Amino acid sequence: MQKIGVFVCWCGSNIAATVDVKAVVDAVSHEPGVVYATDYQYMCSEGGQSQIRQAIKDFGLTGIVVCSCSPRMHESTFRKTAISAGLNPYMVEIANIREQCSWIHKDREDATEKAIILARTAVAKLNLNRPLTPGESPVVKRALVIGGGIAGIQSALDIAEAGYEVDIVEKSPTIGGKMAQLDKTFPTLDCAACILTPKMVDAASNENINLYTYSEVEDVSGFVGNFTVKIRKKARSINADICSGCGVCTEKCPSRKAKDEFNMGLSNRGAIYIPFAQAIPNVPVIDREQCIKFKTGKCGLCEMNCPAGAIDFKQQDELVERQYGAIIVATGFKPISLENFDEFSYSQCPDVITSLELERIMNAAGPTKGKLLRPSDNTPPRTMVFVQCVGSRDTSGCGKTYCSKICCMYTAKHAMLIKEKYPDIDVHVFYIDVRTPGKNFDEFYRRAVEEYGVNYIKGMVGKVAERNGKLLVQGSDLLADDQIIIEADMVVLATAIEPDESARNLATMLTASIDTNDFFTEAHPKLRPVESPTAGVYLSGVCQGPKDIPETVAQASAAAAKVIGLLAKDKLRSNPCVASSNEMLCNGCSTCENVCPYGAISYVSKEIRSAGKMEVRRVAEVNEAICQGCGACTVVCPSGAMDLKGFTNKQIMAEVDAICR
Amino acid sequence: MQRIFGLIKDRVGALLADGTVDRVIGWEKGEFLYDHTPAIFNAEDDLVDLVYDGFCASNLSKYLIDESKKDGKILALLKPCDTYNFNQLIKEHRINRDNVYVLGIECRGMLDIDKIRALGIKGIEKVEEQGDELYIQTIYGDKTCKRNEVLLEKCINCKGKEHVAYDELVTSGEDIPQVESNRFEDVEKLEAMTSDERFAFWRGELSKCIRCNACRNVCPICSCVECVFDNKDSVVASKANTDEFEENLFHIIRAFHVAGRCTDCGECSRVCPQGIPLHLLNRKIIKDINEFYGEYQAGQDTNSLGPLTDFTKEDVEPSIITEKGGEK
């Protein structure tokens, strides 16, 4: 029989305001095995923890139940408390009476009843707990960064600087990501390329960094410290080892129909192309869907003109398998599709553009060589209207409910840059709110209004329509309580951003969780913001939520610091809650082996004595060093031979019984 | 039926005589004409007791778990639907394939004695099968009926006349008509009920259970070394034994244990002395699996991963339960 102590936390008023903690203490003290029960204002505080330690000593407790917040929050805290009092840490059970009880209930009586049930459930389980001892697993001293934008580059550089090998997998032909497409950056207005491309070069030249561009992660298996990742290196149709990057092929290519992705489709590119001048690696790629050679079998001009003989039409995708100790997700974002926003006439009027398209138009290396010209007729605009929150903070269901965070600042930047370069252009900005928290951000916005005379109008645009070569922008001015129509030459939509479409698939591969908007979720939104709930998987940049460049870089370095901390260890303490098979019950059916995501189960022939006679049977064996305790095997085992230490079938049934009592 | 039996008997005799196989598992006459029983035949001379007619519904594949462990090779007479279970057991490493010689035998569908009786044919002394007609001698004189009218439920919903596993086939070459049916018809009726109606239906049916365990014992999938319901440490055993409602859960737990593995052989319902339509539990799960993960027939092959033990990114999200479930 266990001697169990129950410790009910008030969590200040978080729990105590909704749950009668004294009633929980009273009720649970009559449960089997419970020899001591008490409550305290902050159980996680030093005072609370010392009470627990004292009670373990005074009452000779063999196990403790802490009724408090989620085990995600403080299970490890209380396990440490138990260790310091000489108790096995796996003799600690947490009853979550905060997130799953007090926070979600209003009625005190109901919440108290539920808290009592949760407490006695934990007691029922703890009665069947056994002390467990963790094993150790080795750490592969290499990290994988998925995504080669500024987030991925920064993370990789930091990890490489600490002396560890890093691979960057980038699906497009070059690293650089969205930042490479930007013209100037707020709030300092320095050019994006000037600050990004040196980092790109650093990444390429760092001997610890290995770039897999034009590559995608195809499969991830394993676990923290020991991931195995399959990377598909898509066929560039170029032998990168001998290509000098001279670019002759890209000039000779007769196909000019493909939209240039880097210029947001505002110009065309050849079928063989280098995305932009500072691309890394400076190696072209053949777009096989556009290439005349691939489509008709005739052409091959690039091959004839390549001085290095680097063109390889027969090149195949290559699969690489690599081991990693940690993985950073830095898959970034894309602007949302505007198909739900017909009122802005984006698809009909070429002069209605997105902000990212404007970045390209303003950029000296862009389609207009940096001249501000209307895409429809290449004439300079006289009046420009910016529309903010297109698809952001949208509760209509057409867009995203969240704030894309970067639009207020880049719109102020655009307005200011245009006024600086072309003071005669009238610039109007429709906004819902202007949000400028951040160092020097509000000052930046005020300069746009006060120094440059940008006309900020509080209100939304209802409709944009083309008439006689002009764009009629109909909107409301909420402060003047007026409906207004502005005759504009160009309209720029501050389009909401959303996670890159690869996020969903990747999250599945990594068993990392994503939210309803496909942003990766953090292990804890405040205290573990750069870790995913999956051990060994870290988050960097906009894949976790909208953020600007300084925040992205900060988070990228934070994720890198976490990875460095992990890779610095030679061994990881492994989770002792692993599966084990009762060979007397094992059918040998291999179902567990088939579902095990870690390859931890194998089958052996073994002599088994059953009902008095010896018999050779095929039975399952679990490699405890590989098992991650996911429990999939225990669920599929038809005979109940598989069980999970710490979460045995019996324990779970005891919990269910305690709930249903 | 007479002709195919002759062909089978000749072939079995020859395979025993030439030493290809050491033993045979088939059927022998039972106490009544309609309860032929699985039996092992060790020598050619014993084959006088071998029978094969419309009352050989028992699926012999389950017996091969133990029989294939023994020395020597055993010949198994498997009807087309039986071979699905044979494959499933091969997949689960339960049968030693090397020790089995599968003689795939032709089947015209097995007969349901209760359906014959329900036609008012009582006092049956002999049933003679000729093509699609049955000639029945009774103490009240001779009667006839159509074979298709008195097929077992599982044979109305026949999986087809093809064997999915065999070493050798014995067929008569005669044309065998297939009955048109929708095996999910009854499941759809249950789905159309409200959850209260459905609960009442199953409570009504399952409360008839006397826990004779016939369904489990006959089920070729329920073949665990030790069943959870016999294992006192498994926690479910004691519950099902002590609580009337939880005893109903026996069948539901069993349905979940065989989910994705059940070939829909229908033996559970056939042997139930209380006439509980247990196969409907399995069929509901099969129907859901087909709808969620694409058509799947357990036992079709010996190497594919079943849909419930395989994960693909195309799999339905768990939310399908709430989208589909609830009141209709």
Short précis:
The complex is a heterodimer of chains A (661) and B (328). By secondary structure, chain A is α/β, with parallel strands linked by helices. Chain A contains 18 helices and 34 strands.
Protein described:
The complex is a heterodimer of chains A (661) and B (328). With 661 residues, chain A is α/β, with parallel strands linked by helices. Chain A has 18 helices and 34 strands. Chain A folds into 5 domains: 4-126, Rossmann fold (3-Layer(aba) Sandwich), CATH 3.40.50; 142-234 and 317-332 and 500-567, 3-Layer(bba) Sandwich (FAD/NAD(P)-binding domain); 248-305, no CATH class; 334-498, 3-Layer(bba) Sandwich (FAD/NAD(P)-binding domain), CATH 3.50.50; 579-645, Alpha-Beta Plaits (2-Layer Sandwich), CATH 3.30.70.20. In chain A, helix 2 (46-59) packs across helix 3 (71-84). The model of chain A has no long low-confidence stretch (mean pLDDT 95). Chain B has helices spanning 2-17, 64-67, 80-91, 113-118, 153-156, 185-192, 195-206, 214-218, 236-242, 244-257, 267-271, 279-293, 320-324; strands at 23-28, 37-41, 50-51, 74-78, 100-105, 124-130, 133-138, 141-146, 168-170. In chain B, the strands form 2 sheets. In chain B, strands 1, 2, 3, 4, 5 and 9 form a 6-stranded mixed beta sheet that branches. Chain B has a 3-stranded antiparallel beta sheet with strand order 6-7-8, with no helix packed on it. Chain B has 328 residues and is an alpha/beta fold. Chains A and B meet through helix 16, strand 33 and helix 18 of A and loops of B.
- Give the helix proportion of chain B (percent range): 25-40%
CATH class of the largest domain in chain A: Alpha Beta
Instruction: Give the helix/strand class of chain A.
Output: alpha/beta
Strand tally of chain B is: 9
- The named CATH superfamily of the largest domain in chain A: FAD/NAD(P)-binding domain
